Each structure stands twice: as structure tokens, then as C-alpha cells.
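[Discussion] Sanity-checking designs against the backbone

I'm trying to build intuition for which residues belong where. Below is a C-alpha cell string of 196 positions. I'd appreciate it if someone posts a full sequence so I can compare it with mine line by line.
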């Protein structure tokens, strides 16, 4: 029997140390930790896949909370089934002692764990959807205030207008004008349409 820990944060700028510290306190060796910096929307994560290949019957998998496993209701339930029933791995959710499959193997314990898991999975997906909704609202409000997103647009070079006119008159090709402006042809054409 081996003991493993799974840690997930949604993005590169989020810090996974809090989860790693919890795993260390639970006695998980550093070389038995799997850490992903990927969204919880699905289970297409490199370290999760690697962990799934490594897990064997009787192993114990620690996670800090259900939402660290994932944020998709159906997928969490499916993965839980794969882990506990197909692979016969024990799961310990550190912040929810009711979700410790090492104990409560009787019908009542399994029933309670299943209900708690379904509730927490629903909450995890609901929170993900709320985050996306708040992001969309924030972006819409910022756009309404005139905030621009993305990389700032590069200004056109001083000779742009002259070259644009030469292209219109057929004195120079669009490709040549774009090259003289140090920009791709598609960008040159787009700026010609945009700038009167």
C-alpha cells in the first residue's frame, strides 16, 4: 500500500504551497505528490493522468478538498467511482473527514459519503460557474468604461499613409508596403481598412 497526494491550482500565478504543506503534515512524501496547475473543468491534466497510472489497489490518495480534485460535477463523481470502485483506491479528503473511504465501509457510511460527495461536487461546479459569470460581468463593465483588453496596438509608422496611397494607386504591392512598415501583410491591410 502506497500513500499519494494530489494538489491542483487553476493557474500558473496561484500558489500551491498551502496544499503541499497540508500533504506534508499528513505524512505524504514529496516524491509521492502530484501537482497540476490546470483548470478543474476537466481531468485532462498531465500529473493527474500520471497519478492514475501509478495508483494500485489498496493505495491511499489524499486531497485537500473536493474542489481541488475538480470543478465539474459529473466528472468528479465519475473520477471518484473510477478511483474507489475500479482501482479500489482509498480517498481521504483532508478538510472533510466524512469523505475518508478507509472507514465507513458499511452501507450507512457509504450512503453518507455519497451524499456529501454529491453536495460538495455540486458546490464546486456551481462556484466555477459563478466565477465565470463574475468574470464576464467584470469584463463587460470594464469594456463599457472604455477599458481595452489585450496587447496595446502598435502605432503605424510615419510613412504608413504615403505607402497606403501608393498601394491604392497600384504603384506598390501590399506585400512590399507591409514589408516597408515592418508588419505582416494582413496587419497592413487591416490597418488600411481601419484608418481612413
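Best answer:
Here's mine. Compare freely.
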Amino acid at each position: 500500500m502506497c500513500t499519494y497526494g494530489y494538489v491542483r491550482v487553476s493557474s500558473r500565478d496561484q500558489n500551491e504551497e498551502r496544499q503541499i504543506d497540508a500533504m506534508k503534515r499528513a505524512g505524504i512524501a514529496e516524491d509521492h505528490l502530484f501537482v497540476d496547475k490546470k483548470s478543474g473543468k476537466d481531468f485532462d491534466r498531465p500529473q493527474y493522468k500520471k497519478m492514475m497510472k501509478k495508483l494500485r489497489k489498496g493505495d491511499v490518495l489524499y486531497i485537500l478538498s473536493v474542489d481541488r480534485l475538480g470543478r465539474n460535477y459529473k466528472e468528479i463523481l465519475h473520477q471518484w467511482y473510477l478511483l474507489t470502485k475500479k482501482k479500489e483506491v482509498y480517498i481521504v479528503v483532508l478538510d472533510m473527514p466524512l469523505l475518508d473511504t478507509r472507514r465507513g465501509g458499511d452501507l450507512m457510511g457509504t450512503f453518507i459519503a455519497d451524499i456529501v460527495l454529491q453536495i460538495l461536487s455540486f458546490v464546486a461546479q456551481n462556484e466555477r460557474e459563478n466565477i465565470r459569470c463574475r468574470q464576464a460581468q467584470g469584463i463587460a463593465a470594464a469594456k463599457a468604461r472604455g477599458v481595452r483588453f489585450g496587447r496595446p496596438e502598435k502605432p503605424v509608422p510615419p510613412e504608413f499613409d504615403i505607402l497606403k496611397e501608393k498601394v491604392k494607386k497600384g504603384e506598390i504591392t501590399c506585400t512590399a508596403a507591409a514589408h516597408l512598415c515592418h508588419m505582416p501583410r494582413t496587419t497592413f491591410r487591416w490597418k488600411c481598412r481601419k484608418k481612413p
